[in-house]
Every structure is written in structure tokens, then in C-alpha cells.
Amino acid sequence: MADLIIKYQKKRQYINLFIGCLWIALGAYGLWSSDGIRWSRIIIIAVGTIQVGMVIWNLKYQYLTMTENFIKENFLFGKKILMQDIIHVKKIKGNYAINTADKELVIKTNLIAEDSLIELLFFMGTLETQEVKTI
Q1: Count of domains forming the chain
Q2: Domain ranges, residue 45
Q3: So where does this one cross the membrane (predicted)?
Q4: For residue range 5-33, what is the model confidence (pLDDT) as tens digits?
């Protein structure tokens, strides 16, 4: 099996990019229009920059990476679960919860693009047909 990349919805990324640019624009306008430099405006610019940075990170690394050996969340401090350690897989309100002895990874399907959701459902179907221990 080749690496499977589960992607975010494009709409979600565009909304976050717009909000980040809006924060930056509001902070820059506040700095430009006032006489003195206020920390609150610099913080607004920093928050906008962080949000735009998160969008760039999400576009580059996407939501999940699945291989034959592991499932990894591509967040800054995302979880990585080895396939051999999976003891239970369950579907809760459309989301998937994958449990090991010491970790739980919840895959939120409402964040996933339609084409990646089809790939995820197929992968989960093959994962559930393997020998999986239940609690």
C-alpha cells in the first residue's frame, strides 16, 4: 500500500486564510492610523500571521498520513499510532476512534475533503476486516 494522504476541505482552508488575512489587515490598519504603537495591534497582527502559517502548514502536510505501518496526525504535536498496536476501532457520530493501549486517535470526518473521505472509508473497511482485538 502506498502512503495515503487524507486532505482537509478546501473551503475550510480558504475561510481560515481569509480570517488570518483579515486579522493582519486590521492590525496593520490600526498601526497605520494611530499615532503610537500599541501592543494590542501587534498582537492582532501576530494572531493573523499564526493563522496564515497554520493554513500554509495544513496545505503542505494535510490532515492525516496513513501507511502500512502507522497512522499519523499532521499537527504540530499530532499523534502517531502504529498499526500493530491498534486494539479497537469504533465509529462514533461519523468520526472514527482508533485506540491503542495508551493512545486514542479520533479522525474527524467533517474536516476531510470528499475524495479523501472515500479513500478513508475504504481504508477503514480494510482495517476493520483485519484481526482487530476488541475491548
Answers
A1: 2
A2: 4-61
A3: 14-32, 38-59
A4: 999 999 999 999 999 999 999 999 998 88
